[in-house]
Amino acid sequence: MTAADGADGPAGAPGARPASGEGPAGGAGSTGSAGASWSLRPATLEDVEEIAFAELELFPDEAWSVFQLAEEIEHPDRRYVVAVEGGAEPTRSADGRTLPGRGGALLGYAGIMLAGDLADLHTIGTRREGEGIGRALLAWCEEQARTGGAERMLLEVREDNARARAVYAAAGYREIGRRRGYYRIRGRRIDALVMERELGALGGPSA
What is the rounded distance in angstroms from the CA atom of residue 205 to the CA atom of residue 197? Predict the structure, then answer.
């Protein structure tokens, strides 16, 4: 899906995929450059169908299925997030129960795998560029990785995706390896560049 290692992902799933170029990280309730507000919240099974549609739009040659996405989101060692239009504040049901907010249309999503002191960015994608959504999704994943005990984050990015490579480099990722012919796009084999970032302690600075 985005640019990270697909190891231990859903059966037959490709590696992670690169985010679109984005500006500084935003967060819950952030306002984009066009004045449209958006927010981040943890992904749930209710988001799977919409994420699958986004997959087909963003990664038609590598899209994960609804079943693969559901398996990912439910896995105890995965952390998935979505960016949605508007706020995602909790709401109250008719019987007075507090329900998690849903927000509006899906603007982006991302997910990681936790494996001890290592986290792997499995996917990241945005439907709207230039508003910091991709950077905010990446920052959320990094924070979840730290909380889960990870000291490093790995990802993979297509060699020919200069924009995504620049985004990751600006976020502190450095190239540490290459997987030749890893991506198969419309009959072409494209190398994946493996990138890594050292994560600082929870609440502290990153390397």
Answer: 12
